[in-house]
Amino acid sequence: MALKFFPRESTSLLSFLREYNLSLSFCTHPSLTRALGIAYSTPSHYVFAQQASLFGDLYDVILPEVGMEEDCCQRVVSQLCGALSHLHSLGFVHRDLKPENVFLCDSACRWVKLGDFGMVKARGTRVPEVWYSSPYCTPEAEIAHGNEDSWRSMNDGKDVVKEDEEKKKKARVWVSVEPSTDSWALGILTYAMLTGSHPWAETASDCRSYLKYREWFDAAKGPEDELDVWAEPHTESAQDAIDLDGPELGKKDRIPTAPQFACFTPLACSFFQALLDPRPRLRGRPEDALSYLGGDWMMEKERVRLEEERKKSRGKGAIRNMKEMEGRGER
């Protein structure tokens, strides 16, 4: 059992009860963190008990610039697809999928749980659009770039124009909450798990890395792709994607891959283009992503390089742990 604390200074009782009841009543999927029916308050905090995840969160096992093993990543993706599909089937959108909110029940990621439901909203709820300086921010949120609800990272070097930006802020933009937001976050999270980095610094039209991806995406997709996947089932399989990248290449020139995706196989590229579709109504669903599991995602050369880097990192970790033990007088 674990206890989740909410500071009373910054949390309303309504917000606390809302998250508690959602976790207690609707999080019945094995990959969702569920409340245990124990809730109370102290002079400084609201508290409820939830299922414990004793191995930390996903952020702890993603090595910077290296990531995690591919089979481990696919296990996590499989479970998150199930968890998100369950929430979406109930009419909810998580809206805050990131490594810190994916909790581990074992060290090999055979059982993970998506948690932290403070941002969850019912599909169709009208909320102010928020743009923020992160790859997890969706492309459609850029319409709110510069308004009162948006923000940039603290260290992006643009604080010097803060006063001018205050004068130029745009009016608040209201949008409908849609599950395609979770699909985008799942795509970015998967990239981070595989590489230990992000495909771009922020999802914005002035970000060169993102523009490189858009050029690749726009060249690879055509008018025949105009299918609203949220309106009817998506039938393209992973094998279809492989077939298109195989025999069809003899019939037309290969489209240059965006540099940050060159380390991935055609199967993985199709996976990312499905989830990271800049068009929200055409963006793939979590359940669609399951069809891309099981095959190789990393190119062989890149897989070998990352494995070597992981071995070096494990060695450094073992030396560090030994020094910590010696520092405590342990043998």
TrEMBL record:
PROSITE patterns: PROTEIN_KINASE_DOM, PROTEIN_KINASE_ST
Molecular function GO terms recorded: ATP binding; protein serine/threonine kinase activity
Domain annotation Protein kinase: ranges: 1-298
SMART domains found in the cross-reference section: S_TKc
Biased composition (Basic and acidic residues): 321-331
Region (Disordered): 308-331
Originating species: Seriola dumerili (Greater amberjack)
Protein name (database record): Si:ch211-171h4.3
